[in-house]
Automatic annotation (TrEMBL):
UniProt entry tagged with the keyword Protein biosynthesis: no
Domain (HTH marR-type): residue spans on this chain: 1-132
Keyword Transcription regulation applies: yes
Pfam family, one: MarR_2
Keywords of this entry: DNA-binding, Transcription, Transcription regulation
PROSITE patterns on file: HTH_MARR_2
InterPro entries (UniProt xref): HTH_MarR-typ, WH-like_DNA-bd_sf, WH_DNA-bd_sf
Species classification: Bacteria, Bacillati, Bacillota, Bacilli, Bacillales
GO molecular function (one): DNA-binding transcription factor activity
Name of the featured protein: DNA-binding MarR family transcriptional regulator
């Protein structure tokens, strides 16, 4: 019996737990790290854009962003649409980014040890396809 979904979930939980063990002493959690990575690339985004990218429900994202704002990691600025404020990283978050990235990269290297580049590329394609399939099934509902 193949329970791919269950195994993916177990692996994801292990990945998140291990990442949290490495970055929580640095004042960050994996849920926040996803926001940091997205904003580091995009510079500014709305809460909705971040939620959609991370596939996180709005109330959960609100709690994460509120905590990050209190910790001085993000700030809200006027957006293109006056009703939606944009979120961006603070100078503090930019200063700590390289430290967090180093820990994340080291953890990923450990997780990927012994896996060929070709297998990792296939793995990435499989995950993209699975996400696309799941997104498509939600749109049909």
């Amino acid at each position: 019996m193949r329970l791919y979904g269950h195994f993916i979930n177990q692996t994801a939980r292990n990945f998140v737990k291990t990442l949290n063990e490495r970055i929580s002493p640095l004042g960050l959690y994996s849920s926040q790290w996803g926001v940091i990575l997205f904003l580091a690339e995009k510079e500014k985004a709305t809460q909705r854009e971040i939620s959609d990218y991370l596939r996180v429900e709005a109330p959960t994202m609100t709690r994460t962003l509120t905590r990050m704002e209190k910790e001085g990691l993000i700030t809200k600025v006027p957006g293109e649409d006056r009703r939606a404020r944009a979120i961006q990283l603070t100078d503090k978050a930019h200063e700590l980014y390289e430290v967090w990235l180093k820990e994340s990269d080291e953890m990923e290297k450990q997780a990927m040890k012994g896996i060929s580049k070709a297998d990792l590329e296939t793995f990435h394609k499989v995950l993209e396809t699975m996400n696309a399939n799941l997104d498509e099934s939600k749109r049909k509902e």
